[in-house]
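Quick question: who can interpret this fold?

. . .
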Amino acid sequence: MELKDCVVIITGGKRIGRVVAQRLAERGADLVLSYRGSKTEADDTVRDVQARGRRAIAAVADVSKAADCAGLVAAAVSAFGRVDALVNMASVYGSKPFDELTEADFDRDLTVNLKSAFLCAQAVIPVMRRTGGGRIVNFADWLARSGRPAYHGFTSYYVAKAGIIALTEALALELARDQILVNAIAPGPILPPPEMDPQEVAAVAAATPVGRWGGEGEIAAAVIALLETNFITGETLRVDGGRHLV
């Protein structure tokens, strides 16, 4: 799919999502950026896109709710007349010991990290069908893609991200005849959390075969590749600097 003049929805577009939006704008795409509580960041990204000569809007949406997902897609169609791609980046990340994990914790991880991707896809698919196809990119995790949880305290997060892989494969099969290709990205060490201890940041880099954190640009490059493909579908691409090899 050619990105020039395409309309792309990005959910949860902070930090890494902002760079993804910038790179897509540089390829000629127009952007719809959803936010729930970070309007300032979304507006900043809109300005980034506009500075690159493309159109963009920010739309408030709680993508864990079907009505908000439908409203997000409607806002995109109202502004630009179509939607060609959906990049499901909305996510929450955190650990809690299994013995302290509550039903609410479990529901939160599955709702934000998994259900939201389903709801946004469900909302946008009829629009893509009307225009002859599209692309959906979901976000999993390198550990779920590798089939090993590896770290204690991430039960519900791991389950949700493993579900993203299954959702990606199921949607890819369901939608292939509609020329809607569905893939996922499984990030490894891309950006250290702001609160991470410098020694831990260095340790993660040392444990990664390429010897460093990836940076936002690696995710943007992967998103672009999966949007531009005309034949790959049902895949989950690890972007982890080789972490799964060790």
User: Anything to note?
Assistant: The longest strand covers residues 180-187. The chain has one domain: 7-245. The helical segments are 16-26, 39-51, 66-80, 103-130, 142-146, 155-175, 198-207, 216-228.
